[in-house]
Each structure stands twice: as C-alpha cells, then as structure tokens.
User: Fold these one by one.
Assistant:
Number 1:
Amino acid sequence: MVEMNLFHFRDRKTFLNRTHPLAKTVALLVFSTLMARSDLGRIVVILAVFCLVALSISIPLGSYRRELRFFMVMATIIGVARAVGAESWQDPATAVLRFAAIVLMGLLFADTTAPDDISRAIGSLLAPLPGIHGYRIGATLELTLSTIPLLFDVAFQVSQARQARCESSWHHPVRRIVSFGTSVFTLLLERAEDLEAALRSRNFNADAKRDTMPLGYRDGILVAASAGIAVVVLLIT
C-alpha cells in the first residue's frame, strides 16, 4: 500500500476545496504571469503567501519529505546552472525560489482540486464552442492529471521494493539508475493497462456530457484576492 500522497487530491471542506476549478485556474494564471518576470523580492513575497495558504489548509509537507527530494535535487541543479557566470547571487536565488513557488502552487492546486472536477469544468466551458469537443478535451486533461500522482506512486513503490532487497545506492550507480528507470516505466505501463481496462469495463465515453459545479461567491473572492495580492506585490516591491 502506497503511503505517500504527493499531488493527490484530498477531499476536505476548506475554502480552496469549495471553490470552482476555473476560479483556481485563473488564480494560477495570475500568479504564474506575476512570477514570470518578478525579481527576488517579489518571489519571496509570493512564496510567503503560498506558504501561509499551505499552513492554513494544513498541507502535510512533513509527510512529503521523501517525495520532495526529487524537487530539491532539481532546485539544486537549477541554482548551480544559474550560478555559473551569474553576476550576483540574486539571479540563482531568484531561480531557485521561483521553482519552489511553482512546485508549492502546483501542490496547492492538486491538493484541493479533483481531476474529475477539472474535467467537468473545462468540458462545460468549451462544449458550447462550435467545432470543439469540450468534454473530450476535459476527459483527456483528467486522465493526464491522473498520471502525475500515478508516476510518483510507481516510483515510490519501486524505491521501497529495492530498499527491502537492501540494494546499495552506490554500487554501480549508473546501472542502478537505468534499472530503476526501466522498472518505473514498466510498472507505469502495467498501471496504464489496468486503468484502460477499468475504463473499458465502465463503458467510459470521453464525449459524454458532464454536470459541473456552479460558480459562487467564493470564486469571486478567490479571483479578487489573487488580483489584489498581485497588485500589492507589484506596488510594494
């Protein structure tokens, strides 16, 4: 049984869980645009906001320590690459903190938004447009988002199995990395086949019309708060 739940949706009664997926998508676009060309000061403020939100909805970052090591390695690589030839320490620091903010933003979105809700919201939005298969696009997006936690689950299972066999991390490291990647890919294909069989058994229809949750006052608050925070960050930094 997999113990981690990185990038898995948790069904709770928080403010973000109750907001519409489209409102959260707008908030993502606002902060992503803001972070694209922000300096170190703005990135620090944005990251602090995300941390406060994560604390307010009790995201169990402590239980993600093992899984977050991958992102820590990526952040280190980004920092070292940007530090080479950089004129000051601020450039690599900005790149690392921006990467951390993006990861945390993704965690917040995945933790509070079910892939099925995203699919229904996108499908309902695009379906009225002529020549566009909105519900098919939504179903494709749902399946794509579902593979992200599946990939982490599979990698965790393979890692745990190798640790149970007491395999050394330093014995033939290149061969071990290749073998690990092959095992993950093979198990991921098996899981994908199981998912396909499950969808076929349920007569899954990507073009089927789906109901969606209505927009409410919480969605307006979220969009307004995101825009307000963006304006404040631009003004004070």
Number 2:
Amino acid sequence: MGAAVSTIERGSPVVGKDVVRAWVDGWVLSRSVPAAVEIPGGFRIDVGEPGHVVRYVLFDIARVRELAVGRADGGTWIKTAAPAEVVVPALTPAWTVNDPEFLMSTPLRRGVTAVPSGYTVHTEERGGVTVVRVRAADGSVAAGGRIARTGSTAVVDVVSTEPAHRRRGLGAVVTTALTDAAAQAGAETAVLVATAQGRALYRSLGWESRSEITPAFVA
C-alpha cells in the first residue's frame, strides 16, 4: 500500500514523505532529542522521556500493524498520517488512541500583527530555534512558542497561551512572530501539527491542512 493520508478536507493535497520528514526534523531540533532514523514507511525518534521513550511517525499505513504488534512496550508512541478509522483496526488492545491532530503547512512570508496593550514580545535565538515569549505587564509569560529551522523548512512547536490570557489574540501574535523570524532567516515553508482547537487559529492565519494525524501509545 502506498502512503496513506486523510481526506479531512475535500480536495486536500496528498501528504507524502517530504512533508512528514520536514515535521520530524524540526520537531527533534525543537525538542533537543537525537535525530530521527528513517525506517520503512516512516521515522523512529528515540525521545527517552518517561512515558515517551520512543516515537514512530508513519506516512505508510501498511506499517502500523507491524509496529503495533511488535513494539508494544510502555512509552511507545505511533503517530500516523491517516485518520483514526484507518489506523485503529491495525492496533491491538494494548494501544490507547488520543484525539486527532492535524499536519498543516503554509508558505512563509514576513509579517507583523498588533500586540494587545499591556503585552510585549521577546525573541531569543537558540541554535536554529527561535523562541518567542509574550510577557504581561507584570513580567510574567502570557504566551509563547518555538520555531525550528531545518534548511528551507521551519517547524512551529509548543505554541501555548496561559489560561488567564486567552481570547486576546496572543496565539496569533506568537505564531506570526515565529514565522516572521523564520522567513527573515531564509526559510520558505512552515509546518506544524495542531490540535483540533489549534487548527482553527492556524486556518485563520492562512495555514492549510495536509493530513490528519492519529496518535496512539502504550502506557
């Protein structure tokens, strides 16, 4: 079977190895974990954290059953570029399926967005990773995120807003600051994986859904 993808949006483009590879490469740089190892149908990442020892990211649905049966150790994750109704039948009862996520991309361009009164934006570079923090008037971090550049592609990661500061547009401020920094550094395309809630924000900023991602893990 060839690379399997979701049809979460009518007419959405087929996602292939190149898009998945871009996300994986940026994710490992952002998280400071060892480089991914290519395997048939996807990639293996040795994360090495409690509850998240190893992660497999697959673009070929045919590989799910083989990994699900043979890699059912605690702390193993599989993230597959396909919807749950395709992935779940290939799993054994040992696996727990999380809520769907969404692989998205956008062409990069310079941009700015208005910062709400009382907030300031702070940017820091860390070896190919740009960290953006939005601070409130008292100096506390209200929102933040990172973008990791790997050649012409950049991966947005861990964008979040503290509960007391939500619904003020800070997510858009962070995302725009991140993509602006990556564009200024020469990256041409940005990729991310969003939650269902986050997908609405990124769509409003012009991002395109490429594939549904089904996460599954063994506790």
